[in-house]
């Protein structure tokens, strides 16, 4: 069991932390004029993940299974509308700094739910004795998850992130991969999968809209747009490389 959980750590937990540290370093050495581009990259990563999660969730639903419709729409609505309602009631804090810092945590939650699904794929292949495929999935997902650190850190802009928050963000985003590898051997209901994919999609949609409102100003539109394209391109290319090597889409 520990070896399976270890695969999850290599594929999710460690790459997420490496991505966070790389993003923090670049945020310090790059001039402030690059801030819009970095936020754009973060937004691009999230846009790609949102559509990926929506695809995964709708694939799990059945045209003749109305319960799956309710699970999907209910989870998506609770996540997206619920977060907007929480923001409106200032549950995240009245100070602007608190609100901005809440975005990286919401991104980490969404990515964590996404990475739970990746852990399920790794654990299932390992449990089936497909060790080569497991290794390829670990390598591919690891590369993919390393880029997610930029999405987490980029959302904070120039707002300082404490080491305690860095530790929490990495755990929230990366640890679910380990949980997924463990759960894959226990049997997971399709309704459960639909629920966490839709919850993740809703939380990322909320963050995408928040980042767009915050960064898409008259002076930074081109910079942010280029960053969004770059973020989507990075995620797409790593997914295609994984597909070419392993035959499994991320």
Polypeptide structure, described:
The chain has 250 residues and is mainly alpha-helical. The protein has one domain. The protein has 9 helices and no strands. It has helices spanning 2-29, 35-60, 66-88, 96-127, 131-146, 148-154, 163-183, 190-215, 221-246.
Would you kindly provide a brief summary of this structure?
The protein has 250 residues and is mostly helical.
Helix amount, in percent?
A: over 70%
User: What radius of gyration results from the CA coordinates?
Assistant: 18 Å
| Tally of separate domains | 1
Principal-axes geometry comes out as globular
Q: How far is the first residue's CA from the last residue's CA?
A: 23 Å
What is the total tally of β strands? 0
Please report which band the strand proportion falls in: under 5%, 5-15%, 15-25%, 25-35%, 35-45% or over 45%.
Answer: under 5%
Tell me the major beta sheet.
none
- What average pLDDT do the residues reach? 81
> Which residues form runs of ≥5 with pLDDT under 50?
none
**SS field, number of helical segments:** 9
Secondary-structure element sequence? HHHHHHHHH
Structural class per helix/strand content?
Answer: mainly alpha
Q: Topology, please?
A:
Layout: H1 2-29, H2 35-60, H3 66-88, H4 96-127, H5 131-146, H6 148-154, H7 163-183, H8 190-215, H9 221-246
Characteristic key phrases:
250 residues; single chain
């Amino acid at each position: 069991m520990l070896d399976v959980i270890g695969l999850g750590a290599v594929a999710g937990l460690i790459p997420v932390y490496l991505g966070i540290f790389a993003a923090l370093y670049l945020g310090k050495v790059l001039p402030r004029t690059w801030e819009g581009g970095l936020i754009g990259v973060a937004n691009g990563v999230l846009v790609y993940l949102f559509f990926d999660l929506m695809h995964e969730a709708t694939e799990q639903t059945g045209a003749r299974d109305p319960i799956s419709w309710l699970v999907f729409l209910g989870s998506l609505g609770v996540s997206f509308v619920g977060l907007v309602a929480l923001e409106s009631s200032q549950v995240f804090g009245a100070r602007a700094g608190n609100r901005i810092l809440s975005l990286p945590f919401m991104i980490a939650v969404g990515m964590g739910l996404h990475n739970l699904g990746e852990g399920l794929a790794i654990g299932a292949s390992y449990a089936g004795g497909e060790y080569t495929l497991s290794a390829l999935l670990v390598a591919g997902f690891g590369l993919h998850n390393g880029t997610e650190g930029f999405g987490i850190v980029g959302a904070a802009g120039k707002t300082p992130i404490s080491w305690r928050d860095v530790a929490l963000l990495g755990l929230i985003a990366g640890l679910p991969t380990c949980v997924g590898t463990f759960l894959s051997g226990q049997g997971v209901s399709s309704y459960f999968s639909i629920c966490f994919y839709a919850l993740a999609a809703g939380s990322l949609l909320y963050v995408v809209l928040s980042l767009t409102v915050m960064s898409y100003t008259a002076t930074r539109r081109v910079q942010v747009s280029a960053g969004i394209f770059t973020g989507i391109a990075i995620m797409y290319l790593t997914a295609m490389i994984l597909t070419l090597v392993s035959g499994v889409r991320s």
